[in-house]
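tool_call: predict_structure(chain=1)
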Amino acid sequence: MNKIALTIALVFGFTIANAQDTTCTYFDGLRVLEFDYYKTEILYEEQNFSEYFDVYVRYGDVLCLHLSDKKDYVRKVIVTYFNLSTQAHILDSKNYVYFSPNNIIKVSVGKPKLAIKL
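tool_result:
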């Protein structure tokens, strides 16, 4: 009986140790905030004056990307994977939330641009 309890405790311990973290990066115009997804405490805030803002993702973590522009804008988002391949996306940015896949190392978020819908 003690072996079963020890096995369950070890499996539970390893599961918690390998749990993934979720960090959120919030974009509102030029303002960028990063906060802990579970505690909702702001880790840092800054202004983005460059063409792209890079968000680095630790191995095994998930990025919650909250694009909260006030108007119908789009943003170009470039995702860099662990094998260093990249993929570009054009995302709606009027209060949308996106979650990253597990195998990324960096997300570059462009400035908001006016959405032209045909």
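agent: The radius of gyration is 18 Å. Proceeding to next step.
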